[in-house]
Amino acid sequence: MTNETYFEGTLPSHRRERDLLIELLQADRGNRVVDDLDLDSFTMAWGFNANSGNVWLSDEDLNCVMLNSDDKLENWLNCSNCSHEGFKSEMPLNDNQECKDCEDKN
Question: CA-to-CA distance for 23 and 83, rounded, in angstroms?
């Protein structure tokens, strides 16, 4: 067992993560994306987190996409203030990249 929790570019050692990576690539190839997502701008890398089990595709600016509950690729965002995470449709960010809770506190 390793102490590292984040991996990029190496094949996941667990079947579940491998299957999720395959699903991500199939969604990309099948153009199963949320309406406003433009994957043509992505120079894709992929990664996974051993603690959360999340598997994602990302670009050179670390913008991430994951499969949402509709089996479509959607932007995965995190709040710059509190680190709250979620899909763009569930957690829109303001111009300062803050979630609604943090925006309301200011």
Answer: 26
For residues 87 and 75, the answer to whether their CB atoms sit within 8 Å is yes
3-state secondary structure 53-83: CCEEEECCCCCEEEECCCCCEEEEEECCCCC
Residue-wise DSSP of 10-70: S--SSHHHHHHHHHHHHHHHTT-B-TT--GGG---EEEEETTT--EEEE-TT--EEEE-TT
Q: What is the pLDDT of residues 38-73, one digit of tens each?
A: 777 667 788 888 788 889 988 888 888 999 999 999
Model confidence, pTM: 0.79
From 17, 62, 60, 59, select the one nearest 39 (Cα to Cα).
59
Element (H, E) at 102: helix 100-105
State the pLDDT confidence band at 2, using cuts at 50, 70 and 90. very low
For residue 4, give both structure tokens: 């590292």
